[in-house]
Design brief:
globular; 14 strands; 2 domains; five-stranded mixed β-barrel
Length: 207
């Protein structure tokens, strides 16, 4: 009888272990569908960038100060208070002037909305340019894969006949497909590649 009871207890233990193993397999590592969806269809957050507040005070951190001049309106962010400037032999675009000042003595130049500024002390007055209304194209964007891209100011690569006007932080390039939509998408690929992916744009920065 002792042998039978021991055998019964062992069988119960084995059955319990088996049931626990099945439960762990069922609960472990479910399929992550969010990876394949990529956030498509989510509303794009639009941020309005301002280097100065209404009183003309800087709202961004300053990384350096230099001297230089501006000669035309910005290509990266075509708006009324943004300029294309240079310091020495380095082109700076965009450089933002404080609004409400007739003859500002400096502008804030940023490579992108998330970087610190280079304050450019002007050696010449700002040029008289035709005011530019806020355009459709954003200054910068962030994709659903976490990659950030900023508007190019020179020659841009073309993949499958699509000009990719945004250079991305990982060396890829992108272009906005439907900038006016609530959920913006972008063509995304590598300059020397042959294929394009469509990614959701989670955030856009405008001037």
């Amino acid at each position: 009888m002792g042998v039978r009871r021991g055998t019964g207890n062992l069988l119960k233990q084995l059955l319990a272990v088996g049931a626990l193993a099945l439960l762990l397999v069922a609960c472990a590592s479910p399929t992550d569908k969010s990876r394949s969806v990529g956030g498509q269809g989510a509303t794009t957050t639009v941020r309005t960038f301002a280097a100065y507040d209404a009183k003309g005070n800087l709202t961004v951190n300053v990384a350096d100060v230099s001297a230089g001049k501006c000669w035309t309106s910005s290509i990266a962010d075509p708006r009324a208070d943004a300029y294309r400037c240079w310091s020495g032999n380095k082109i700076l675009d965009p450089c933002f002037a404080p609004s409400g000042k007739a003859a500002p003595r400096s502008v804030a130049c940023l490579a992108d909305p998330w970087s610190d500024a280079l304050v450019l002390n002007l050696t010449e007055p700002l040029p008289h340019v035709t005011p530019v209304a806020a355009g459709i194209r954003p200054w910068a964007l962030q994709l659903d894969n976490g990659v950030r891209c900023v508007a190019s100011t020179g020659m841009v690569p073309s993949v499958k006949g699509v000009n990719l006007a945004f250079r991305c932080t990982n060396g890829a390039a992108a272009d906005v497909v439907n900038a006016r939509a609530t959920a913006v998408t972008a063509n995304y690929g590598w300059p020397k590649g042959k294929t394009l992916l469509q990614r959701s744009v989670t955030t856009m920065w405008r001037g």
